[in-house]
Amino acid sequence: MTKSEKQELIAQGLLLPLMEEFYTIQGEGFHKGTAAYFIRLGGCDVGCHWCDVKESWNAELHPPTMADVIVDHATKYSKTIVITGGEPLMWNMDPLTSKLKENGLQIHIETSGAYQLTGTWDWICLSPKKLKLPTEEVYEKANELKVIVYNKDDFRFAEEQAAKVNKDCILYLQPEWSKRDKVVPEIVDYVMANPKWKVSLQTHKYLNIP
Question: Which of this chain's residues are annotated to bind substrate (predicted)?
């Protein structure tokens, strides 16, 4: 395959930088406790300093993989597929999600929303970041809003973001893992004072599940 052919396949979303894929339990948000097959794509320029998968940022470190191959693997494990990253919307998600849908699968995405929304989704988990805000379309279509709380200013940011999503979007505050001992009590107090919000925890980490 020539370099130009490879670039064309990447542009079409037929070739994607696959960082890892694994079958596990969804640990966060609305679907926590659900068995799901995770597809983690490389590539992200949002640059959160507390990111726990910084090795995903450089897409060139992860093997370009045909969408058909990714789908073949996914269909062997679960009816629920979670596409995450990195930032998966850096890539055209239309081919991958179309092929997954052809196999009757439920498809979720975890995204910062910073790029154009492509793909067909049964559930959109929007986790916005201050450095690169979501697009209007993602705000309108998000099923859940998950704001990571690292410090007190994140409560202000969370309210800003909540004002932009649709009325049916479920609102979550999730402690940044390294700050959990400090911010969990603050989140609990905030949710009790503002019950439109719910607490999301990274339960897979408490359970020592990958």
Answer: 25-27, 40, 84, 210
